[in-house]
Amino acid sequence: MKLNTLFVTAILASTTLSSCVFKTADENQLKYTHTTLVDGDAYVILREVGSIAPYELDYAKHVATVGNAQAKDAANKVSAFFSEMIPQMDTLGVKLHFDFPILGQEKFVAPSAHAAVTAAVEADSTADSTAVHAHHDHAGAAHGTGYSDAGYLQHAQHQVAIVKKQLGRLSRNTNVDLRNFAQSKLESVAALYTALGGKEDAHGHH
């Protein structure tokens, strides 16, 4: 009986160790080889959405401290959406072997502090053109031109529209994990887009 107990204990310990080893192996494969399990279309989508999400979350947190009532309300909605999405993307990143957070993504810097800070895309020599181009629209909205409530609302609507479009594309991907992730976001991103003043395209549904 004691031998059976020891045998079962050994099996359980071995299973737990194997699980940890495989998880570490997955993370190391991503870290050192940068191989990914997503197709080219999904990779582009994930890089764009993954670059937008952290920036918009930080921008929304800033607006929540400086904006008027309308801007703060919008920022709170944006913050809630991306706060939920980011850890989900992190989980997908480990499982499907794509880098998240995105290497070289632009960091939000409050307008008053921007002059003293170098943008991450300039400092990170590993940044590629996909990450750099994903945020050209950010620069005018928050850098150098000062903050305005109207400017933020327009910016947030534009960025959420991009995320909405890309999640729609991702919801038709052949990978079931990506498809389920995107489909679970379609309703909430559409509601956010509408709350920010966006108009649904009557011809945009299939």
Describe the structure in your own words.
- The chain has 206 residues and is an all-alpha fold.
- It folds into two domains: 1-33; 38-195, Ferritin (Up-down Bundle), CATH 1.20.1260.
- Helix content is 70%, strand content 0%.
- It is built from eight helices and no strands.
- The chain has helices at 2-33, 40-66, 69-96, 120-123, 129-133, 136-142, 149-170, 176-195.
- α2 (40-66) packs antiparallel against α7 (149-170), α3 (69-96) runs antiparallel to α8 and α6 (136-142) runs antiparallel to α7.
- Mean pLDDT is 77; it is low at 6-19, 28-33, 114-121 and 129-136.
Concise synopsis of the structure shown:
The protein has 206 residues and is an all-alpha fold.
Radius of gyration, taken over Cα atoms and rounded to an integer in Å = 21 Å
CATH class of the largest domain: Mainly Alpha
Oligomer: single chain
Tell me about the biggest sheet? Answer: none
Total DSSP E strands? 0
The name of the CATH topology of the largest domain is: Ferritin
- pLDDT under 50 segments (min length 5)? 6-19, 28-33, 114-121, 129-136
- Backbone shape: globular
Give the fraction of residues assigned to helices: over 70%
The domain count comes to 2
Q: Roughly what is the average pLDDT, rounded to an integer? A: 77
CATH architectural arrangement of the largest domain:
Up-down Bundle
* Count, helices: 8
